[in-house]
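User: Fold both of these, please.

Assistant: Here is the first one.
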Amino acid sequence: MRTRTLTVTYDAQDPARLAQFWAGMLGREIVEDAGGVLLPGDDTQVSLRFAPGDAEMVRPNYMHLHLTSASPDDQQHRVATALRLGGGHLDVGQRPEEGHIVLADPEGYEFCVTEPGNNYLAGCGLLGEVACDGTRQVGLFWREALGWPLVWDQDEETAIQSPHGGTKVAWGGPPVAPKTGRNRQRFDLAVTGVDLQAEVDRLGSLGATRPEIGADGTVMLADPDGNEFCVRETDR
C-alpha cells in the first residue's frame, strides 16, 4: 500500500530537552530514531522530530506551530504548562486585542496558543496548524506531493490538510522573507510502497530541485521557494 507521511523536523542544540518540552505540551511519547528524537503523530496530527544542529537562531523562522485551546482557562493552562516546561513569552509585534498568545520553546522557536472559538482551526486537534513562510506555489506543490486537499486558497494564502482531518499546513503568501541559509526547520516526507527514485522523480516533475543523497540514503530536495526537505523510504 502506498502511503506518504509528513514530519516536521527541528534542528536543536539539545534535541532531548526540546523533545521533552514538546512531549509535555502535546501529551506524546518520545521515540529515538535514526534522524533524532521523534514525537510520533497519527493520521490527523503531524509528527515532530528534533535533530542535532547548532545553527544560530535567526528570526523569522521558516515555520511555527499553532496550538488550539477549548476555553480561556484551557488557553491559560497551556501557557502555564509551557512556562513550567522551560518556554517563555515572546514579543513579535502582536497587538493586545489579538486573542492568541505568542510563546517560545526552550530553544527559542516561536509558537502560538490560539484563542478558544477560533473557527479556522475548529476540529483540527491540539496541534492545529503548522504555519509556514511561503508562496502559493509552494502550497500547491505540497498539495500534489502529499495528495492532501487544499482547504484554503485566498489572497495568495494556502493551506492543506490530511483527508482524515487534523493539523493544517499553511503558507502565508507574500512578502516572503529572504532565505539566508539552510532552514533550521524542514519537512520530512516518508514514503511506503513507493520506489524512492520514482518518488524523487515525481517530486521533481512537480517543481522540486537540487537532489542530494545522504549517507543513509535519505534524499534532500528543495521546494519551489528553495526550502529544503527530506524524502526517505520507510517500511511502516
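And the second sequence with its predicted structure:
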Amino acid sequence: MSPINFIAGIFATIAAATTTPVAQPGKIRTFGDWVVGCDNGGTCRAVALMPEADGAAYDDWGGPVSILRTAGSDDIFKVHISFEPGDIDRYQMIVDDQLVDTGAIVQGDYPVEIVGEDALKVATAIIKGRKLALRGPGGENIIRISLSGSSAALRYIDEKQDRVGTDNALVAKGSKPFDAVTPVIPLITVDHWESAKLVPETSAIISLVEDSRCKDERYGVVEDQVYPLGRRGNRFRALVLISCGSGAYNFSSAPFVGEYVEDKNTDGGWTFSPAKFDRQPSWGGEGTDPLLVNAGWDNQNQTLSSYGKGRGLGDCGSAENYVWDGDMFRLTEASAMPECRGAYEWITTWRANYRKSPTAASAAQ
C-alpha cells in the first residue's frame, strides 16, 4: 500500500469513528423457542426461551442458555448458562442423551461459561439436537432447554455477520474463507457545560406539571426530580423528570430541559421544552413526547437511563442509556427482550462510545 493510500485510510477510519450516525438498534427475531439479535457492532446473541409446548414450568426451566459471538477478527465465542447454583459444584451437559460437555460450576452471573473450541462443540450439538439438559454430578436436574429454533437462530447470526457460505459459519457452512471486518462503534462528542447548582424553583415545576400531559396521570405520592445541567456564560440549564404515572413495577417520567438566562435587567424565569433524543425511548413510542421508565441519572457523566419491565419477573422489556451532548440525549446502549418467557439474558441492540469535546474539557481544567 502506498504511503498516500495508507494515510488516507487512517483519516477515513478516524472520520468513521467520530461521525455520529442516527442510532438504529438492531432487530430481535424469534425462532421457535429461541430469540436472537445483533447490535451495530456485529456482536450477536441467541437466547433460549421457556418452551411453549410440553407444558413446561419454571421448576423444569431453571434458567436460559445464551450463545454470544462477535463479528470482528477477535471472534469471541461463548456459551453462557444462568441459574442459581446452590451447592452444586459440577455439571454435565446432555444433548439428546449424549454428553457434550462437563466442568466446574462457579459463583457469579454465569455459573457455567464455555468458550472457544469447547463452545463451538456445544453450539454444534445444540444446532443438531432437540433437547438440552444440565445436570449435577448426582444426576440432579439443573435446567432443561428446548432446542427448537436454535438452528434458525444461529443461522441468523451467520447471515448478520456475513459468514454464510464460509468455513467459519455455524450453520450455513461453505468452503469460502471468512474475511472478518471489525465494525466501527460510533463515537459521540459531548459538550458538557461548566458545573453549576442552579435549578428551577418549586413554583416553576408546579407550573410545568400543570401544563403537561402528566397532570392527570399522577396518583398517590409523586416525586419529581430536578438535576442541574450546568452553565455557559449567563445561561443555565437543568433536567426535570416529571412523575407521569406508575404501575406495580414501572414508574414513568416525562423529561424536560429547562433554561434560565441570568439578566439583571429582566426576570424572564425558567423556560421548559421536552427533552430531545436522537432515538426516542421505546416506552413512549415514536411521534410523541419522550417518556422514560424507572429513570436513572448519573450527574457526573450526565447520562440518563430508562428501564421498562414487560412484567414483574423482569424477564422481558427494554432498556436504553443516553448521554447528554449539550443539546440532546444520544443513545449509547439499547437492549431488549421482547418475549416474556423466562429469559433474563436481554439482547444488546445498539452501542456507542462518547468523549468530552476538547474545548469543554480544556475549559473545565
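Residues 315 and 344 are 5 Å apart (CA to CA).
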